Amino acid sequence: MSPDRPILEALGRLKTRPATAPRPIAVYDLDSTLFCTGPRNLAIARAFSEYRHELRPFVEQLEAERMGWNVMADLQELGFADQAILTELRHFWRATFFTDHFVTMDSVYPGAVELVKAVQKTGCLTFYLTGRDDPGMRQGTLQALGSAGFPLPAEDVMLRLKPTWEEDDLAFKTHLFDELRQLGEVVLVFENEPTNANCFLRAFPTSTVVLHATIHSPDPEPLAPGVHVMESLAGDWIQGSDLQ
Length: 244
Prior knowledge:
This protein has 244 residues and is of the alpha/beta class. The chain has 2 domains: 5-36 and 108-230, 3-Layer(aba) Sandwich (Rossmann fold); 38-96. The chain contains 11 helices and 8 strands. Strands 5-4-1-6-7-8 form a 6-stranded parallel β-sheet, with helices on both faces. A two-stranded antiparallel ribbon has the order 2-3. Strand 6, helix 11 (194-203) and strand 7 form a beta-alpha-beta unit. Helix 2 crosses helix 5. It starts with a helix and ends in a 14-residue tail after the last strand.
């Protein structure tokens, strides 16, 4: 089966949906699902290397589009082995990664904007559900969404961020499941974390859950058989369908 076929089938079913049916909802994670965090991580590494010049030759070898989930691991793979400096970098990363300033440096995965807009045109409520926190990242997130051309929060677009940075990402998302059920019926979910994708499928078994196979946190649980995998959101499948 073509990787995009489950999405097209899910949206095709909306055409025969009774007018009295609950409103369809499409849920999107942001980091590493719609947005690539590589440029953000690279900018943080470069900023830190201004203080720790030993890192500069290694940071210069980093490529944003090839960076993994952990910038410290990326540098170790390049041969940097000073654990004390890597620990300092980890503290610096934690203080900067989750901020309005650095979040605007993310790039957008090819096809992401087109996908969200096309699904919105079918009548789906766009529901951005992210582990970013409201106090530290709302303004930067809104700026990034707008600059990229994504639909911004409005009557048919909702954005939910964690109330505090400390709250666990998955716990926050599962806490929002009741709100989603009250708003309508979840028909599509896009995630990059296998554990999260599995949780959505268990909570909304009739939905089409898609894993965007980018990067994810270490040691996730095995992906459930019912989760669909897409290596890329880009392609001719949107333009070639009647979604546009």
